[in-house]
Fold:
Amino acid sequence: MNESDILFIPHALERMNERGISKDLVIGALTNPDKVEEGHFGRKVAQKNIDGKLIRVIYEEHEDEIIVITAYITSKVDKYLR
Structure:
C-alpha cells in the first residue's frame, strides 16, 4: 500500500481536523498497524498504539485503494487491543 492509494472522504478529514489527528498519523496506522479488526458494514479498523493511547482508523478496502471513513484516538487501549 502506497500513500497514493489512500483516499480520505470529507467526513474523515473534518473529524481528523476536529480531533487534531494528522494524515501522517493515519497513514502510519494503516501501513503499520498493531492490529486490524473487522468493523461494521464490511469495513476494517486499523489500530496502532501511540504513546500509551490508541489510534483507530475505520476504512474500506477496494481493489486498488483504501478509503478512510474516520479516525479517532482513545485511551481505552486494553478494551481494543486484547
Remarks:
- The chain has one domain: 3-77.
